[in-house]
Every structure is written in C-alpha cells, then in structure tokens.
Design goal:
- By secondary structure, this protein is mainly β.
- 11% of the residues lie in helices and 52% in strands.
- It is built from four helices and nine strands; from the N terminus they run H-H-H-H-E-E-E-E-E-E-E-E-E.
- Strand 4 and strand 5 form a beta hairpin.
- The longest helix is centred in the first third of the chain and has 8 residues.
- The relative contact order is 0.18.
C-alpha cells in the first residue's frame, strides 16, 4: 500500500500543484443547480446547459436552454452565472465579486478599502458521430484586484460515449488549459 500515494501523485500531477495556483480560483466554483446537487459529478452526464462548464461534449443536443443564477457566499462575495445552449453550441458568462475588502499598506496599517472581481466568457461547440460526442470551449478570463488587471485565454475539451446495450455514459474532460494570469511581473497558472 506504500506505493499507492506516489502512484496517485504521478497519475494526477495537477492535484499536487493546486496549492500554488492563486489565479482565477472562481473557475472552480460549480455551475448549475443539477450539477451541484450531484456533487459536481457531471462530466459523464453533461446533458443540460451546465455542459458548457463541465464537459462541452454535452452540448450536442437539439433544443435550447437558458440558465441564470446568482448566489451570495461568505463575507459578501457573490457569483452570477448566465449560460445558453442550443443546436450543439453554448455560451456562458461568469462574474464573481469579492465585495469590499479592507485595504492595508506595506506596514499593515489600514488604507482605503478596495474590490476584486473576476469575469469569464466562454463559447463552446460539440459534434456527435455515432455514440461518441466531442466538444470544445474557448474561454477568456479577466481578473481585477484594486486597479490591477490581468487576463488569460484557455480551452476546455471533452468526450462523451453512450453505450448502446445499457443506459451508461462515460465522459472525460479537461478544463482551463491555457495561458497564465499575469499581475504586474508575476504569472500564475489557471486551475487545471
């Protein structure tokens, strides 16, 4: 059993690096009530508008759907999400506000309060051939802390396969594969 932990670290190297990433963590927040109700185990289901966030291969359907939500979190942080999907395409807008934050100078003395906010705009498309669906999403991310701005671009990709003989679907997805978010001289990776 001693080999199990190093094996997991080798298989999932991104998990070990997650602590060093401090950029665009709002991208890790859930999307859609149904997916959140499933504990975000939605990659292999991805059959509603939330697919634009979890697995773009799930955008392969007829009909259209709209999602609009707003939630308040701890200490006046807020998350607003808007998404639309229809005819194998989907778009989403995510806005996160950190509310009013207490400012401090270099010595730790009180300074003027400030705000921080994050935006993500995404557009995706999916295709289906037989039982296999594939999809991709392009995403633009912007963060603002006080007067400092940073942006990044990334892609999401996903696959879905539905078995013909049983009601089982398997899925795989990768999210936020792209450039680093750079504030002044220091860059930070996106949460992969």
């Amino acid at each position: 059993a001693a080999w199990l932990i190093p094996g997991i670290i080798l298989i999932f190297p991104g998990s070990g690096r997650a602590a060093e990433s401090s950029a665009a963590q709002f991208l890790n927040l859930g999307f859609g009530a149904r997916a959140l109700g499933m504990g975000e185990a939605f990659v292999a289901v991805a059959d509603d508008v939330s697919a634009v966030h979890y697995n773009p291969a799930g955008l392969r359907k007829e009909g259209s759907e709209l999602l609009a939500s707003h939630s308040w979190h701890i200490q006046d942080t807020g998350l607003t999400q808007l998404a639309y999907s229809g005819r194998n395409a989907g778009f989403s807008l995510t806005y996160f506000s950190a509310g009013s934050l207490e400012g401090r100078d270099e010595l730790g003395n009180p300074a003027a309060d400030f705000t921080a906010e994050d935006f993500a705009l995404a557009g995706g498309y999916a295709v289906k051939t037989g039982r296999l669906s594939a999809g991709g999403t392009l995403k633009a991310v912007r963060q603002r802390i006080k007067a400092s701005l940073a942006s990044a671009f990334c892609v999401d990709g996903g696959l879905l396969y539905g078995f013909e003989t049983m009601p089982v679907t398997v899925g795989a997805a990768v999210s936020n594969l792209g450039s680093r978010v750079k504030f002044k001289d220091e860059g930070f990776p996106l949460p992969l």
